[in-house]
Amino acid sequence: MEEINAFLATQRIELQGQPQSGFRLTRRFLLRDIGDPHTFNLHGRLYGGFWESLPKRLRADLRINGEPIADLDFASMFPRLAYARVGPSRLKGTSTLSLDWGNIVPA
Question: How many whole angstroms separate alpha carbon 91 and alpha carbon 107?
C-alpha cells in the first residue's frame, strides 16, 4: 500500500481543473477466520479515494495527468464476460440475451 500511495502522490489528479490531494488508500479484507490470509480473492479492495462517492455527472471531469479516466460499468460487466466466455453458439435457443456490439440487449 505504501508503494501505491507513494505513486499516486506523484500523479496530477484533478477534478474540474482543480488539484485533488490528501487522500490515502487503504485495503480492507473479508476474513472468515482469524487465520485467513489477507488476499484480494477474499474481498480485498482499495478504499479511501475521493472518487468513490463522486456523483456520476462529475466523473467525466476527472483527469489523471491531464488524461480523462475510463468509467467502467461494473454492474453490467459480469453478464457481458459470461456471455463472451460461453459464446452465442452455446446459448442458442436458451438465451434471452443477444450481443449488439458490446451491449447486451433483450433478444
Answer: 12
